[in-house]
Design goal:
The complex is a heterotrimer of chains A (about 350), B (about 325) and C (about 350). Chain A is about 35% helix and about 20% strand. Chain A is an alpha/beta fold. Chain A is globular, with a radius of gyration of 22 Å. The longest helix of chain B has about 40 residues. Chain B is an all-alpha fold and about 325 residues long. Classes of the chains: A alpha/beta (about 350), B mainly alpha (about 325), C alpha/beta (about 350).
Chain lengths: ~350, ~325, ~350
């Protein structure tokens, strides 16, 4: 059995990880991606929807960078632009020293050796007519790497690494469980020795116990091959546990960005505060503390077109304030490494803390 | 919405126009001079030239086409030299019989598919399901003319339950006054139920023979859709409200299962309306299908041309109806 | 979210206080690949107004259990034995007609995926009114309409009366799930079975929907069986928890107790696999080794033994199926199906 499946005794000591060296690998600069909604006809201009609105962020080599937000916040679109599966409307994406957005033909193919993507539902993202072995071998064939025998060995090696017995390699994806199929998807991504993996909700479709296996495995290979992860996730509990740094997106824009533990301990943006407070905590003792903020309304794409702050219609503190209505807040660095786009950062958190102190005396 | 209708209409016109050009060109490039057919093999070269001029064959292709299509729109569909009749008259005589037969064949195929599709999925009995699937394979694998012969042999010759070929109505029965040209409809309009029943009696065997293949196809489609739909969570939710199985099927499962079969049903219906050569031959049915085959063999081009255009119009018309139906039963299409 | 209602767990309850009583229920799926017992002889009671969580992973039989309670298991699945007593009457001995008077009236269902749980070609209003009209023969359509609008308003759908004419695809996921709740509470049932009601929703939407749901069931005293894999939701919403594994309820206790001290090794594994804020310093997550067993080929002994950190390889666990036993020193009482239960729970004290 591979180390993928072994589980320490619950009381086993946990090893600490070394902090990643801050060396820039990916730089996203003023990324904008617009989609047209509705068909263009008879000279009528289609309505443009800004799925990603002027996003800038940097991902360091060897770190796990999390993109967090609700459906429609643009996190998957950013990843698709990064993978060059979508062409940005404007802005640049730098990978080391190359501008990804300008790549064409052969160069683009070479770039793709460095970056691979893993999707949420393995059964949907793997070709159901191919065997596990063919799926893992395909990238090697496409990029014309090694001869038959070498490819065979490489596939064996990588399948073993992800904890799939190579003798089962002739089964098709549906012969595997969700967790196993996700490992095959990971094997396909790893077979080209990439520098970076874009993980789009890789554990969201998995059961809790299997999710833990896959997360542990991702940690393992990250250490082993010094991989950089862009981790797209809506489960905040997983995000906090797994990511080094996190950007919170709302309607296509970064509203807050910080190191993971900072973001969850001292969220500054009212949206982040509400998100964190809305997560159900698996601890019955903490319930009834009166601290949950239930946002009114829903994410609506028209919010991105509004004047002022895009979050203001749902914001517990900024709904009627002049600043919020008129001026779109800029993303500024409040403390080293902690960025927030809000006119009144931290205000809501303080209110919550005060309220919960009253609600539950020590 | 208005925009969609306009663009749909425009598309239909383009389709019919395209079909008319294809029909026209196709027959021009075939070997054999149509004028020669008219004047006969022994006629002189001068007579031939004169006939070609009368038929407009000396003009350029675009001019010929323009002459043909403007004439067509004014009711001049050309002259069938094989039958010695204007084509329009021939169609008026023959098309209603084909459309009527096609309509009932479709009715049979559709109703049988619904009933058996329901039977196969209603209580999820594997035995019933297997029987329906077998019947579907039988329907799709059976050549219609062969089935027509078998039906005649069994139900006419051997059992004598159904009338034989050659007629649409018993000689002893007074035909209803012609309004639509369709005997069953005319009988209903006249309130003559005896004539209606008799016409149905005559229609039954050819309709079944013609409808069996589309039935096999439709029942397979409908069964698969019903299985998909009944596995949808919303069916369980409906059941959890206390709604009985029958109402759940009729109100929820069937309408949803119909949606993906609509396009196929439309195509089948259009095809059936265009007549069927072999089944019409076996039952000696005075339809358009047998006329067209005879005309092709006789190089009677005017008939074939008109048939291609009429078929295109039928397809376009049925497709437009299908689109309207989609709008009615599927709210997701509406906007 | 303050909870005014005291939990009723552990108090001796009169027979009349029990809404649902499931006895020795067994549901099997007969397929060409074998017989899959999705629910294996399960017993439990639901008291009036109780919020019971059933936790388990995919394939543990929790959804089959939900459908068995409603009598909606479809071929190739069927209930092979046991009783489902709703308000004292055995649903299994009822004919379809009587059942159709009970479903939607005394108990109802909320389903997982709001995308597929509503009929796409019928209006929201029609779908809410369907259940109202079915159980209130003779009620005028206009009155049913008013009631439907009121229900939509109760679940906090804005402009409720107008939205009755909308179709499901015109609603967001959160709004659809509110419609589902409106349908479920339409006839003020005694019991609602909610199968993963918020799984497909975003965090803030989930919080909204759970809030509405909790408020409504508490104001009407409706008992809820909440089926979920999200332990956070269980902790916040439920009074009692049952943990399902391979078709059996392997542990049953009050929410407080089970989170304080999980009795069954599987419960403990589940709780430990969830990442927690305290663990954010990047330690390894605890993970359950291996995969759930195939229901068609269950181990001879305890079905969790091959994955169990406590009992793996033990002769007793390998050879004998454990039977449920009441353990735990406290007055609440807890049911654990594990050979090592008493030993594990004593160790703690």
């Amino acid at each position: 059995m591979s180390n993928f499946e072994t589980s320490p005794h619950p009381d086993a000591p946990q090893k600490a990880r070394k902090p990643p060296a801050p060396q820039k690998l990916v730089g996203i600069e003023n990324l904008v991606k617009e989609f047209s909604i509705g068909k263009e006809s008879f000279g009528r201009k289609p309505t443009m929807l800004r799925a990603v609105d002027n996003v800038s962020l940097e991902i360091n080599s060897g770190e796990t960078f999390g993109l967090v937000g609700e459906s429609g916040c643009g996190k998957t679109t950013i990843a698709r632009c990064l993978m060059r599966l979508a062409i940005p409307s404007s802005g640049r994406i730098m990978f080391r020293d190359t501008d990804v957005t300008a790549l064409k033909g052969k160069e683009l193919r070479r770039f793709r050796l460095h970056m691979q993507m893993v999707f949420q539902d393995p059964h949907a993202s793997l070709d159901s007519r191919m065997t596990a072995r063919q799926i893992v071998e395909e990238p090697l064939t496409i990029h014309d790497i090694g001869d038959r025998k070498e490819r065979r060995e490489k596939v064996d090696e990588i399948l073993t690494l992800v904890g799939i017995d190579p003798s089962q390699g002739n089964r098709k994806p549906h012969g595997f469980s969700g967790g196993q199929a996700q490992r095959i998807a990971l094997a396909r991504a790893l077979v080209l020795n990439p520098d970076m993996l874009v993980l789009d909700e890789p554990v969201s479709a998995l059961d809790v116990s299997i999710q833990a296996q896959v997360l542990n495995f991702l940690r393992d290979i990250q250490d082993r091959f010094s991989l950089t992860y862009l981790f797209i996730v809506h489960d905040l509990v997983v995000a906090e546990y797994f990511c080094d740094r996190i950007a919170v997106l709302y309607l296509g824009a970064v509203v807050e960005m910080a190191e993971s533990h900072v973001l969850f301990r001292e969220p500054l943006h009212p949206y982040t505060v509400s998100l964190v407070s809305a997560v159900p905590v698996p601890d019955p003792e903490s319930r009834g503390r009166g601290s949950r903020i239930v946002l009114s309304g829903e994410v609506s794409p028209s919010g991105a077109q509004m004047s002022g702050c895009r979050f203001r219609t749902r914001c517990p503190i900024g709904r009627n304030r002049e600043n919020c209505r008129d001026i779109s807040p800029k993303l500024v660095e409040k403390s080293p490494g902690h960025w927030v786009a809000c006119h009144f950062p931290g205000e809501l958190e303080h209110a919550v803390t005060a309220a919960s102190n009253i609600a539950s005396p020590p | 919405m208005m925009q969609a209708v306009v663009s749909r209409l425009f598309g239909s016109l383009v389709a019919v126009f395209g079909a008319s050009i294809i029909a026209f060109l196709f027959l021009r490039v075939l070997p054999g001079n149509p004028a020669r057919l008219v004047v006969g093999p022994l006629a002189s070269e001068e007579a031939l030239q004169a006939q070609m001029e009368r038929m407009g064959l000396h003009l350029s292709l675009p001019d010929q086409y323009w002459r043909y299509i403007t004439g067509f729109l004014q009711g001049d569909w050309g002259f069938s030299y094989g039958a010695g009749q204007p084509v329009l008259v021939q169609f008026a005589n023959r098309l209603p019989a084909s459309i009527e037969l096609g309509f009932y064949a479709f009715l049979f195929a559709f109703l049988a598919a619904v009933v058996l599709g329901l039977a196969a999925t209603y209580r999820r009995r594997p035995a019933v399901d297997a029987a329906v699937r077998a019947l579907s394979v039988f329907g799709m694998g059976m050549p219609p003319f062969w089935l027509a012969l078998i039906l005649l042999v069994v139900f006419h010759e051997a059992l004598g339950i159904f009338p034989g070929p050659g007629l649409q109505l018993s000689r002893s029965i007074e035909p209803p006054p012609v309004v639509t040209g369709f005997i069953t409809f005319d009988a209903l309009i006249a309130g003559d139920l005896t004539a209606f029943a008799d016409a149905i009696h005559y229609l039954f065997l050819p309709a079944v023979a013609l409808g069996m293949l589309p039935f096999g196809y439709l029942v397979r489609l409908l069964r698969a859709n019903l299985l998909d739909v009944t596995n949808e969570p919303f069916i369980l939710v409906v059941r959890s409200k206390g709604i009985g199985l029958w109402k759940t099927f009729s109100r929820h499962a069937l309408p949803n299962a119909f949606i993906p079969t609509l396009t196929a049903s439309g195509m089948i219906f259009a095809q059936l309306l265009g007549g069927s050569v072999l089944v019409e031959k076996v039952f000696n049915w005075p339809g358009i299908g047998s006329l067209v085959v005879d005309s092709i063999l006789r190089k009677d081009f005017a008939v074939v041309q008109a048939f291609i255009i009429v078929s295109a119009v039928i397809y376009v018309f049925v497709n437009a109806i299908v689109d309207v139906l989609y709008g009615i039963i599927d709210p997701r299409i509406r906007n | 979210m303050n909870r005014s209602r005291p939990t009723s767990s552990g108090q001796p309850s009169a027979e009349t206080d029990i809404v649902l009583s499931v006895k020795n229920l067994r549901t099997e799926f007969h397929t060409s690949e074998g017989i899959f017992p999705a629910v294996r002889n399960v017993d439990f009671n639901v008291r009036r107004g109780m919020q019971l969580g059933i936790v388990g992973e995919s394939g543990s039989g929790k959804s089959a259990l939900a459908l068995s309670i409603l009598g909606l298991v479809r071929p190739p699945g069927r209930i092979v034995s046991g009783e489902v007593l709703l308000n004292g009457r055995d649903l299994r001995s009822m004919d379809e007609k009587s059942l159709s008077r009970v479903r939607g009236k005394e108990m109802s269902l909320i389903f997982q995926d709001p995308m597929t749980a509503l009929d796409p070609v019928k209006t929201i209003g029609t779908q809410i009114m369907e259940g109202i009209l079915h159980h209130n023969r003779g009620l005028a359509r206009s009155d049913a309409r008013k009631r439907a609008a009121q229900l939509l308003d109760d679940v906090e759908v804005p402009q409720a009366a107008q939205r009755l004419e909308s179709y499901p695809h015109q609603f967001s996921g959160g709004m659809r799930q509110r419609v589902m709740i409106a349908i479920a509470i339409a006839n003020e049932p005694d019991l609602i079975v909610a199968d993963e009601p918020t799984t497909a929703l975003d965090v803030t939407t989930q919080a909204q929907v759970l809030d509405v749901f909790e408020r409504l069931v508490q104001s009407t005293g409706t008992a809820v069986i909440l089926i979920t894999h999200n332990l956070g939701i269980v902790a916040e919403f439920c009074d009692e928890v049952q943990v399902m594994y391979a078709g059996r309820i392997v542990e049953s206790a009050s929410t407080k107790e089970i989170f304080r001290l999980p009795g069954h090794p599987y419960t403990e594994s589940l709780l430990k696999s969830v990442p927690r804020p305290e663990e954010a310093q990047r330690g390894k997550l605890f993970s359950v080794a291996g995969f759930p067993p195939s229901l068609a080929h269950l181990p001879r002994g305890c079905s969790f033994e091959p994955r169990c950190f406590a009992g793996k390889g033990l002769a007793l666990c390998r050879s004998e199926r454990p039977s449920p036993s009441w353990t735990g020193p406290n007055e609440n009482g807890r049911l654990v199906e594990c050979h090592l239960a008493s030993q594990r729970l004593e160790d703690d004290r």
